[in-house]
Amino acid sequence: HLHLRRTSRALGWRQGAGRLYPVERRHRERRRPDRGHRPCARRAHASRGAVMPTTTAWLLDKYPSVYHVTYTSNLPGIRLNGFRSANALKRLARSASGFRAESAPLFRKGLGYATLRDQGRMPPKSLRECLPINLSTDDWYQLVDDHIFFFFDEQKAEELFEKYIKLAPQSLLAAQTRDVLSAVGPSVRLTPINTGAVGRARAKRDADTFHPLDKWIREGFTDRIRTRPKAPVELAVRLDSLRIDFSVRDSRP
Fold this sequence. Notes:
The protein is of the alpha+beta class. Helices cover 34% and strands 22% of the residues. It is globular, with a radius of gyration of 29 Å.
Protein backbone atom coordinates (compact mmCIF):
# COMPACT_ATOMS: atom_id res chain seq x y z
CA HIS A 1 0.00 0.00 0.00
CA LEU A 2 2.81 2.38 0.79
CA HIS A 3 4.38 1.72 -2.59
CA LEU A 4 1.03 2.22 -4.33
CA ARG A 5 0.46 5.50 -2.46
CA ARG A 6 3.84 6.87 -3.47
CA THR A 7 3.39 5.77 -7.07
CA SER A 8 -0.06 7.33 -7.33
CA ARG A 9 1.21 10.62 -5.91
CA ALA A 10 4.02 10.70 -8.42
CA LEU A 11 1.49 10.19 -11.24
CA GLY A 12 -0.72 12.96 -9.98
CA TRP A 13 -3.37 10.98 -8.12
CA ARG A 14 -4.48 10.94 -4.53
CA GLN A 15 -6.09 8.09 -2.62
CA GLY A 16 -9.27 8.41 -0.55
CA ALA A 17 -12.05 6.02 0.51
CA GLY A 18 -10.40 3.21 -1.43
CA ARG A 19 -10.37 5.13 -4.71
CA LEU A 20 -7.87 7.24 -6.61
CA TYR A 21 -8.70 10.82 -7.54
CA PRO A 22 -6.81 13.11 -9.94
CA VAL A 23 -4.97 15.98 -8.30
CA GLU A 24 -4.65 19.44 -9.81
CA ARG A 25 -0.95 19.90 -10.17
CA ARG A 26 -0.98 23.63 -10.21
CA HIS A 27 2.67 23.86 -9.48
CA ARG A 28 3.43 22.15 -12.76
CA GLU A 29 1.21 24.54 -14.69
CA ARG A 30 2.78 27.55 -13.01
CA ARG A 31 5.16 29.24 -15.42
CA ARG A 32 8.14 31.22 -14.36
CA PRO A 33 7.78 34.87 -15.30
CA ASP A 34 9.93 36.22 -18.04
CA ARG A 35 12.78 37.92 -16.24
CA GLY A 36 14.52 39.03 -19.35
CA HIS A 37 13.42 42.65 -18.91
CA ARG A 38 13.27 42.76 -15.12
CA PRO A 39 16.33 44.08 -13.25
CA CYS A 40 17.66 41.94 -10.46
CA ALA A 41 16.71 42.90 -6.91
CA ARG A 42 20.04 44.59 -6.26
CA ARG A 43 19.87 46.56 -9.51
CA ALA A 44 16.28 47.62 -8.84
CA HIS A 45 17.29 48.65 -5.33
CA ALA A 46 20.02 50.88 -6.70
CA SER A 47 17.71 52.40 -9.30
CA ARG A 48 15.25 53.40 -6.59
CA GLY A 49 18.05 55.19 -4.79
CA ALA A 50 18.98 57.05 -7.98
CA VAL A 51 15.64 58.90 -8.04
CA MET A 52 15.94 60.38 -4.58
CA PRO A 53 14.91 64.03 -4.21
CA THR A 54 17.59 66.70 -4.31
CA THR A 55 19.66 67.10 -1.16
CA THR A 56 18.11 70.40 -0.14
CA ALA A 57 14.57 69.21 -0.84
CA TRP A 58 15.06 66.12 1.30
CA LEU A 59 16.45 68.10 4.22
CA LEU A 60 13.76 70.79 4.13
CA ASP A 61 10.97 68.24 3.86
CA LYS A 62 12.27 66.07 6.68
CA TYR A 63 13.51 68.83 9.00
CA PRO A 64 11.78 72.18 8.35
CA SER A 65 13.08 73.56 11.67
CA VAL A 66 16.28 73.28 13.70
CA TYR A 67 16.82 74.06 17.39
CA HIS A 68 19.48 75.79 19.44
CA VAL A 69 19.88 75.88 23.23
CA THR A 70 21.70 78.80 24.81
CA TYR A 71 22.01 80.71 28.05
CA THR A 72 19.28 83.33 28.35
CA SER A 73 21.99 85.91 29.04
CA ASN A 74 23.20 85.32 25.46
CA LEU A 75 19.91 86.35 23.84
CA PRO A 76 20.66 90.11 23.58
CA GLY A 77 23.96 89.38 21.85
CA ILE A 78 22.34 86.88 19.46
CA ARG A 79 19.62 89.38 18.56
CA LEU A 80 22.22 92.07 17.97
CA ASN A 81 25.09 90.18 16.32
CA GLY A 82 23.61 86.82 15.35
CA PHE A 83 24.75 83.37 16.45
CA ARG A 84 28.49 83.12 17.08
CA SER A 85 30.81 80.15 17.43
CA ALA A 86 32.59 79.63 20.74
CA ASN A 87 35.97 80.36 19.15
CA ALA A 88 34.69 83.62 17.68
CA LEU A 89 33.48 84.72 21.11
CA LYS A 90 36.76 83.70 22.73
CA ARG A 91 38.77 85.71 20.19
CA LEU A 92 36.60 88.76 20.71
CA ALA A 93 36.89 88.46 24.49
CA ARG A 94 40.57 87.45 24.27
CA SER A 95 39.87 84.31 26.25
CA ALA A 96 42.08 81.23 26.38
CA SER A 97 41.25 78.07 24.45
CA GLY A 98 41.16 74.52 25.77
CA PHE A 99 38.85 72.26 27.72
CA ARG A 100 36.09 74.00 29.69
CA ALA A 101 35.27 72.06 32.83
CA GLU A 102 32.72 74.74 33.76
CA SER A 103 30.66 77.29 31.89
CA ALA A 104 32.77 80.33 31.02
CA PRO A 105 31.31 83.86 31.24
CA LEU A 106 32.86 86.33 28.81
CA PHE A 107 32.72 90.09 28.62
CA ARG A 108 34.16 92.73 26.37
CA LYS A 109 33.15 96.33 25.90
CA GLY A 110 31.08 96.58 22.74
CA LEU A 111 30.44 92.84 22.81
CA GLY A 112 28.55 92.64 26.07
CA TYR A 113 28.14 89.48 28.06
CA ALA A 114 28.23 85.94 26.73
CA THR A 115 28.43 82.56 28.39
CA LEU A 116 30.11 79.53 26.86
CA ARG A 117 28.69 76.14 27.78
CA ASP A 118 30.97 73.78 29.67
CA GLN A 119 32.41 70.69 27.99
CA GLY A 120 31.86 68.40 30.94
CA ARG A 121 29.97 65.91 28.79
CA MET A 122 33.21 65.08 26.94
CA PRO A 123 36.05 65.11 29.48
CA PRO A 124 39.54 64.53 28.04
CA LYS A 125 39.97 60.99 29.36
CA SER A 126 36.68 59.72 27.92
CA LEU A 127 37.08 61.70 24.72
CA ARG A 128 40.53 60.21 24.10
CA GLU A 129 38.90 56.77 23.66
CA CYS A 130 36.75 58.12 20.81
CA LEU A 131 39.48 59.80 18.76
CA PRO A 132 42.03 58.42 16.29
CA ILE A 133 45.67 58.51 17.26
CA ASN A 134 46.43 61.47 15.00
CA LEU A 135 43.76 63.70 16.59
CA SER A 136 44.29 65.10 20.08
CA THR A 137 41.56 66.06 22.52
CA ASP A 138 42.60 69.73 22.17
CA ASP A 139 42.19 69.41 18.40
CA TRP A 140 38.65 68.13 18.91
CA TYR A 141 37.72 70.90 21.34
CA GLN A 142 39.05 73.41 18.83
CA LEU A 143 37.12 71.82 15.98
CA VAL A 144 33.85 71.76 17.93
CA ASP A 145 34.28 75.37 19.07
CA ASP A 146 34.73 76.44 15.44
CA HIS A 147 31.08 75.56 14.73
CA ILE A 148 27.62 76.90 15.51
CA PHE A 149 25.28 74.00 16.28
CA PHE A 150 21.59 73.26 15.86
CA PHE A 151 19.69 70.10 16.74
CA PHE A 152 17.42 68.51 14.15
CA ASP A 153 15.37 66.77 16.84
CA GLU A 154 13.47 69.13 19.13
CA GLN A 155 13.37 66.46 21.85
CA LYS A 156 17.17 66.34 22.01
CA ALA A 157 17.24 70.12 22.34
CA GLU A 158 14.67 69.94 25.13
CA GLU A 159 16.78 67.34 26.96
CA LEU A 160 19.78 69.66 26.89
CA PHE A 161 17.56 72.54 27.98
CA GLU A 162 16.21 70.59 30.96
CA LYS A 163 19.71 69.49 31.98
CA TYR A 164 21.12 73.01 32.17
CA ILE A 165 18.03 74.86 33.39
CA LYS A 166 18.91 73.52 36.84
CA LEU A 167 22.19 75.45 36.72
CA ALA A 168 21.33 78.71 34.95
CA PRO A 169 18.52 80.34 32.91
CA GLN A 170 18.25 78.77 29.47
CA SER A 171 16.46 79.55 26.21
CA LEU A 172 15.35 77.11 23.52
CA LEU A 173 15.40 78.75 20.09
CA ALA A 174 13.94 77.55 16.79
CA ALA A 175 15.01 78.60 13.30
CA GLN A 176 13.85 77.68 9.81
CA THR A 177 16.21 75.23 8.14
CA ARG A 178 15.65 77.05 4.87
CA ASP A 179 16.99 80.27 6.41
CA VAL A 180 20.14 78.50 7.61
CA LEU A 181 20.81 76.99 4.19
CA SER A 182 20.18 80.32 2.47
CA ALA A 183 22.64 82.07 4.76
CA VAL A 184 25.30 79.36 4.81
CA GLY A 185 25.07 77.54 1.48
CA PRO A 186 27.41 74.60 0.87
CA SER A 187 29.40 75.12 4.07
CA VAL A 188 26.65 73.51 6.15
CA ARG A 189 27.59 70.20 7.78
CA LEU A 190 25.57 67.31 9.22
CA THR A 191 26.75 65.05 12.04
CA PRO A 192 25.57 61.53 12.96
CA ILE A 193 26.33 62.05 16.67
CA ASN A 194 26.20 64.70 19.35
CA THR A 195 29.70 66.04 18.84
CA GLY A 196 29.68 67.83 22.19
CA ALA A 197 29.12 64.71 24.29
CA VAL A 198 30.78 61.32 24.64
CA GLY A 199 28.03 59.27 26.27
CA ARG A 200 28.14 55.62 27.18
CA ALA A 201 28.42 54.45 23.58
CA ARG A 202 31.81 56.16 23.16
CA ALA A 203 30.98 56.94 19.53
CA LYS A 204 34.07 57.26 17.35
CA ARG A 205 34.70 60.67 15.81
CA ASP A 206 37.19 62.62 13.74
CA ALA A 207 37.24 65.53 11.31
CA ASP A 208 35.11 63.53 8.86
CA THR A 209 32.29 63.36 11.41
CA PHE A 210 31.19 66.71 9.94
CA HIS A 211 29.63 65.64 6.64
CA PRO A 212 28.81 68.01 3.76
CA LEU A 213 25.12 67.78 2.90
CA ASP A 214 25.61 66.25 -0.55
CA LYS A 215 28.01 63.64 0.83
CA TRP A 216 25.51 62.75 3.56
CA ILE A 217 22.84 62.00 0.98
CA ARG A 218 25.27 60.14 -1.27
CA GLU A 219 27.02 58.01 1.36
CA GLY A 220 25.26 58.37 4.69
CA PHE A 221 22.71 55.62 4.20
CA THR A 222 21.59 52.82 6.46
CA ASP A 223 22.87 49.37 5.57
CA ARG A 224 19.45 47.80 5.08
CA ILE A 225 17.50 50.51 3.28
CA ARG A 226 19.88 52.47 1.11
CA THR A 227 17.14 54.75 -0.18
CA ARG A 228 16.56 56.18 3.30
CA PRO A 229 19.26 58.50 4.65
CA LYS A 230 20.29 58.19 8.27
CA ALA A 231 18.78 60.68 10.67
CA PRO A 232 21.36 63.42 11.31
CA VAL A 233 21.76 64.66 14.88
CA GLU A 234 23.25 68.12 14.39
CA LEU A 235 23.40 70.81 11.76
CA ALA A 236 26.79 72.49 12.12
CA VAL A 237 27.95 75.76 10.59
CA ARG A 238 31.67 76.54 10.56
CA LEU A 239 31.43 80.32 10.62
CA ASP A 240 32.26 83.01 13.13
CA SER A 241 28.72 84.38 13.02
CA LEU A 242 25.35 83.55 11.51
CA ARG A 243 22.54 86.06 11.18
CA ILE A 244 19.11 84.45 10.76
CA ASP A 245 15.63 84.94 12.16
CA PHE A 246 14.63 82.75 15.09
CA SER A 247 11.86 82.33 17.62
CA VAL A 248 12.06 81.56 21.32
CA ARG A 249 10.31 78.26 22.06
CA ASP A 250 11.03 78.25 25.77
CA SER A 251 12.87 80.53 28.16
CA ARG A 252 13.03 80.14 31.92
CA PRO A 253 14.81 82.07 34.65
